[in-house]
Amino acid sequence: MVSSDTAAQAAIGAATRELHLPTIRTEAVRIAEIAAREQQSHLAFLAEVLSAEVDDRTERRRARRLNDAKFPRIKRLADFDVDAVPGISAGTLGHLAAGGYLDAGEPVVLLGDSGTGKSHLLIGLGLAACEQGRRVRYITCAQLVNELVEAADERILSHVVARYGRLDLLLLDELGYVQIDPRGAEMLFQIITEREERASIGIASNLPFSEWGTVFPDPRLPAPLHVIPTAYHPTPHTPKTIENL
């Protein structure tokens, strides 16, 4: 039985360390003082300290997801100027922000010239997914290919491919900006096929679909890769495509 406030604080500190409840450890005294002033019941006090722990844990998870996503900057879908881009509406962005395509494992393809908002939308989609508790990673195609080549040289390629396969949403930016050699193209293809019909991928490119084959020098790759951008018949994995960005 705890007989004093000092002993109570010591007991709370020990218990919360054992149970991994850091917010209760740091906030219990402050919340107890508020509860005493407001004459709250013991149950109300307990509810407050537990809510504080849950809220802080939720925020820590959110911050960790954002850090793991490695966005180069924060861009929200709500801040995108739909009036500046013909053919895209606030309704379309709202539909994508809701994340239904993630549940279905559908891809999203953003096509258009440089400087027209593709990266903004890609990051915005990723940020919306993070806020829904999804595991997200943003990376340019060139960066991903470099990472895969290094992993292959270090004999850990399968581990890296599996890690990218576990993401809820992989965002590949700048497809077509840099020529990829045959080895890198095949590794990139491996990442894409790891996710096909299972988990979503977002791709931003300045190339129309008809020119995507130029990115992959190996003639074996363009046909299967086009399963993603050209599956325009109604199937559960039809890509959400936004053109003229």
Q: Segments where pLDDT lies below 50 for 5+ residues?
A: 221-238
What is the N-to-C order of secondary-structure elements (H for helix, E for strand)?
A: HHHHHEHEHHEHEHE
CATH topology category name of the largest domain: Rossmann fold
Number of strands: 5
Distance N terminus to C terminus? 67 Å
Determine the mean pLDDT: 83
Radius of gyration: 24 Å
Could you say what the CATH architecture of the largest domain is?
A: 3-Layer(aba) Sandwich
β-strand amount = 5-15%
Describe this structure in words.
This protein is of the alpha/beta class and 245 residues long. It folds into two domains: 65 residues; 166 residues, Rossmann fold (3-Layer(aba) Sandwich). The protein is built from ten helices and five strands, in the order H-H-H-H-H-E-H-E-H-H-E-H-E-H-E. A five-stranded parallel sheet has the order 2-3-4-1-5. Helix 1 packs antiparallel against helix 2. The protein is elongated, with a radius of gyration of 24 Å. It starts with a helix and ends with a strand. About 7% of the residues have low confidence.
Topology overview:
Blueprint: H1 5-19, H2 22-37, H3 42-69, H4 90-97, H5 100-104, E1 108-111, H6 118-131, E2 136-140, H7 141-153, H8 157-165, E3 169-175, H9 182-195, E4 200-205, H10 222-225, E5 240-242
Parallel strand pairs: 1-4, 1-5, 2-3, 3-4
Helix pairs in contact: 1-2, 2-3, 3-6, 7-8, 7-9, 8-9
What's this entry about, in short?
This protein has 245 residues and is an alpha/beta fold.
For the structure shown, list the relevant keywords.
elongated; 5-stranded parallel sheet; 10 helices; alpha/beta; 245 residues; Rossmann fold; 2 domains
